[in-house]
Amino acid sequence: MAGMLKEIDSAAESMGIKLRLVPAASPSDLDGAFATIARERAGGLIVFPSPMLFSQYARIATLAANNHLPAMYAAREAVAFGGLVSYGVNLPDLSRATAVYLDKILKGAKPSELPVQQPTKFELVINLKAAKALGLTISRDFLLIADEVIE
User: Fold this and answer.
1) Which of 16, 21, 24, 130 has a 20 to 30 Å separation from 74 between CA atoms?
2) Domain map of the chain by residue range?
């Protein structure tokens, strides 16, 4: 996560945007995190990937909508639950690659001898209903590069 935060911070700085990290490591942290975000009048939200919060995407999308916050997620599942936009690894592809490695290990390969792989397929998903509720207009060019548009 430190690497992602550094990259996002660098990009924000180059655009003159100030970021504030509001941690939420577990579902019980969400209400407090959104209270902080609302109190500080955030203009948007980036939800980092988190195994602890994956099951909470519907709740997070609802909290973001209730606080009129455009939110970006790392997984398309959040957008399917009403989030605005996601850009991240294609989880089914990642699972298939993991299964291939598991198969090799179960057949005797040593994990330390297997090459490190990085995901190669990423997907951009946009929810037009969420955009409309936020009063946002998504450009035609942005829609054309999306892998999926939810209406």
Assistant:
1) 16
2) 44-150
- Contact assessment for residue 111 and residue 105, using Cβ atoms and an 8 Å cutoff: yes
Average pLDDT over residues 94-122: 90
Q: What are the pLDDT digits (tens) for 47-78?
A: 988 888 889 999 999 999 999 999 999 999 99
**Which residue type does 91 have?**
L
Average pLDDT along the chain:
91
Burial category of 79 from C-beta neighbours within 10 Å (exposed 0-12, middle 13-18, buried 19 and up) = buried
What percentage of the chain's residues is helix, strand, coil (to nearest 5)? 50, 15, 35
Judged against a pLDDT cut of 80, whether residue 120 lies above it is answered with yes
**In terms of pTM, does the model score above 0.85?**
no
User: What distances in angstroms separate CA 6 from CA 2, 10, 30, 124, one per listed residue?
Assistant: 6, 6, 23, 21
Cβ neighbors of 33 (< 8 A, separation 6 or more) are 22, 23, 24
- CATH of range 44-150; options 3.90.1150.10, 3.30.870.10, 3.10.450.50, 3.40.50.2300: 3.40.50.2300
